[in-house]
Amino acid sequence: MPAAARRNEQSRRAILDATLALLAETDYAKVTIEAIAARAGVGKQTIYRWWRRKGEVVLEALAEQAMPMALPDSGDLEADLRQVVRATVAEFGDPRLSATTRALTVEMLTDDDLAEQVRDRLLRPQLHAVRDRLAAAREQGQIRTGADLDLAVELMFGPVFHRWQLRNGPLDAEYADALADHVLAALRP
Amino acid sequence: MPAAARRNEQSRRAILDATLALLAETDYAKVTIEAIAARAGVGKQTIYRWWRRKGEVVLEALAEQAMPMALPDSGDLEADLRQVVRATVAEFGDPRLSATTRALTVEMLTDDDLAEQVRDRLLRPQLHAVRDRLAAAREQGQIRTGADLDLAVELMFGPVFHRWQLRNGPLDAEYADALADHVLAALRP
Amino acid sequence: MPAAARRNEQSRRAILDATLALLAETDYAKVTIEAIAARAGVGKQTIYRWWRRKGEVVLEALAEQAMPMALPDSGDLEADLRQVVRATVAEFGDPRLSATTRALTVEMLTDDDLAEQVRDRLLRPQLHAVRDRLAAAREQGQIRTGADLDLAVELMFGPVFHRWQLRNGPLDAEYADALADHVLAALRP
Amino acid sequence: MPAAARRNEQSRRAILDATLALLAETDYAKVTIEAIAARAGVGKQTIYRWWRRKGEVVLEALAEQAMPMALPDSGDLEADLRQVVRATVAEFGDPRLSATTRALTVEMLTDDDLAEQVRDRLLRPQLHAVRDRLAAAREQGQIRTGADLDLAVELMFGPVFHRWQLRNGPLDAEYADALADHVLAALRP
DNA sequence: GCATAATCGAGACGGTACGTCTTGTCTTAAC
DNA sequence: GTTAAGACAAGACGTACCGTCTCGATTATGC
Fold first, then answer.
1. How far apart are CA B83 and CA B72, in angstroms?
2. 3-state secondary structure of D72
3. Banded pLDDT at B5 (limits 50, 70, 90)
4. CA A60, CA A51: separation in Å to the nearest integer?
5. Predicted confidence (pLDDT) at residue D122 exceeds the cutoff of 60
6. DNA-binding region located at which positions (chains A, B, C, D) (predicted)?
7. Surface of A (41-70) touching B: CB under 8 A
8. Which of B71, C114, D39, D108 has a 20 to 30 A CA-CA distance from C3?
9. What are the sequence ranges of the domains in chain D?
10. What is the mean pLDDT of residues C154-180?
11. Hey, which chains touch B, using 3+ CB pairs under 8 Å?
């Protein structure tokens, strides 16, 4: 891709920054290609040249600032899981972060290609990290042998996601701890 | 509600039918108010008069055809849960039904009012039915006293929802059974 | 055309007025559909709904304000022709009027349909009026029988048009009179 | 002009040839700088380096292939004029040649500088040649002393130009002869 | 004959305008 | 008085060109 070599990094940054700024400030409906281009001081074509759709711009913008969740291994499985679940619940509960997640979720529902990218680039690494922590716990006999670890990860995150999207209850520390407890109960020998 | 008294039932039906037809046939992006009106042979104003946004039309259309899931109580908790989870997994796994769910999910993410309505009119009844079944089980000592039944319901549906939306694995009977098993493990005395 | 019955006359006027204003104020390159719409406080679609191209808007705007040249018949053929030619030369010589003529000419060269319309709606009536004056003169023996009156009209206007477009000499009263004289010389018995 | 010394003649030829080819093949609206560059296999900058605007490229392309009209002097003024007018009418009547003339005319209406260049480089030589022929005729008493020869030239070409641009009648030999006759009538002693 | 400086093809860039689409409101005529 | 039809203002869509700019890679002198 020799063309990409000519890509103007300044423009790229300006576009991603403008996208993040708009996501943070306004309704997602106002995060249009035109608004991004205007905010970034960039021609629309420069966006269309490098991304096929708005969702991909949003993804790339979010992917760059995503901090890989720190996954503790203190030896105390219960404490570690509580910490992970609390962090997740806090993220979904924060209206600010929640807005960008919402944006990305809308795009994923609309575009299968994008859904794959989001899954593989943003989510899988996080889910795999948790699964690895559970695998270590299983080695040490803290989890029953028959437990399906991928499913266990879904047991941890699925309910949070569900509650967030359906606004079906509070997203607070108490909820996080109760959830962690029930997941542990499902996994214990 | 005097206006409603004058409401033309034929138009209402035509609009909802057109909405369902478009949802089934085309991309959700093509399900526009204009397309619905044209398909239903109805003026756009007739839609705007009775619904505030497209999402509400979609919701009403889907609500009418939603069959309340039959919740068995055979006395065998494991069997009953497996059946419920299998039905849920099958519904999300069916591309046809999945399309309308996707449509509604997009609208919920965009419109808080609508999210409430969907939650209260479509989902809560189903979730409550499951919770009631679990409550009965708890009465009979099949579930430990400390279990949080609302959370238990989320443990059942959250992972399915998560996997569906993230396209993060197969949605089949085997998965349904494994999920039901883990949920039961979390609840048993 | 029942649809046309619904046409909003206010919008139509605003569009034509905005077009005339822009033609008078700016380079023709800046007379864009977007500029007209913005100036008229009108959606672009409202322009595209009623006109196929910019040239047609310009034509309609000009056609409405075109005053049918007063064609005198004083009995004195030479005086009458001088007056007509002087008026024509003055019009082409005036930078202001010249700008709109230039605009229309560009459009005619680009669009055959429009050229026909301009010819039939704006120009032919004027040319015919002159021909009729010449016909009256021929009746009275002031013009030789063999003269081709359509050609005579072209002899009067063609040189002015030619000189204007090629900027090939001054467009003043002296020139007008000389031209009128030569045309008369070509027609006299 | 040391820079010009480095000019790549191959590129220049490719650009002018591409321009002529596009003029001949497509609508003038499609004769863009980008299209010329692509067709010529040349960078856009190479065009902008040597010409200020598209019109100048078109002019240069046309100037190179313009054959200077042969102006006969058989001694028979009427025959000579008829021949010139016939040739002119034929050129404007030919759709092929007409297309390039149209292109150039559009540019002239848009760009005063270009208009001067076209007038001086392409048209004046032709008009002067005709005027010189008329001057010779006047020497021999075939034209009245008071005739304005520049105006006479305009009397010959103006009507053709007018009729062509307004599509106001046929451009054929019969017309040419009638025009020549009337012009002669205007000039005769 | 070698350095060096302008030219070259290519095409990214910030812009402007295009012509189309949909939104939600407003107007009209028919029933 | 509600309807179907659709005009309307607004504004985003994705595309096409504009004229400028930056890249390496040829040239073609002129030292």
1. 8
2. coil
3. very low
4. 10
5. yes
6. 32-51
7. none
8. C114
9. 2-64, 68-187
10. 95
11. A
